[in-house]
């Protein structure tokens, strides 16, 4: 599974403006839930916020990876946002966040969910990759950066 299989250009927002952590999460949930019912959107948002209450998904280095599991989705789905201004996200390193990947998956897909989280986390640990995302001018550049990084760091099968 490649990240580009679960992320599309239409779910990438490079000029995200939101009030705080909750606003960022809500905007990315809107991207993921586009075309879904209000009930499905509410389920996605609820699952992500419930996970966030356990512990912040602000992982450091200006990165957050909010995620949740809900049967409102049939398969893994992701969104990416780059904040116009750094957002206080209660990150583990105490620094604000600008790069945010949202991941949502069905409740019965724990394995693929964890694998995708791990892949996102590993890619975002590379300073050069974070810089590419920070400097991308459009969603196609983000997708290209992800494709190239996955090719470099992961053996892709199938």
Which labels suit this protein?
alpha/beta, 158 residues, 6 helices, Mannitol-specific EII, Chain A
Write a short abstract of this structure:
The protein has about 160 residues and is of the alpha/beta class. Helices cover about 45% and strands about 20% of the residues. The longest helix is centred in the first third of the chain and has 17 residues, at about 40-55.
Low-pLDDT sequence parts: none
CATH superfamily: Mannitol-specific EII, Chain A
Helix content: 40-55%
Give helix and strand order, one letter per element, not per position: HEHHEEEEEHHH
Structural class: alpha/beta
Cα distance, first to last residue?
8 Å
**What would you call the shape?**
globular
Number of helices: 6
CATH topology: Mannitol-specific EII, Chain A
Relative strand content: 15-25%
Summarize the main sheet. Answer: 6 strands, mixed
**Average pLDDT, all residues:** 93
Instruction: Kindly provide the name of the CATH class.
Output: Alpha Beta
By oligomeric state, this entry counts as single chain
Number of strands: 6
Q: How many structural domains in the coordinates?
A: 1
Examine the secondary-structure arrangement and name the CATH architecture.
Answer: 3-Layer(aba) Sandwich
Overview of this protein structure:
The structure is a single chain. This protein has 158 residues and is α/β, with parallel strands linked by helices. The protein is built from six helices and six strands; from the N terminus they run H-E-H-H-E-E-E-E-E-H-H-H. It has one domain: Mannitol-specific EII, Chain A (3-Layer(aba) Sandwich). 46% of the residues lie in helices and 21% in strands. Strands 1, 2, 3, 4, 5 and 6 form a six-stranded mixed β-sheet that branches. Helix 2 crosses helix 3. The chain starts with a helix and ends in a 5-residue tail after the last helix.
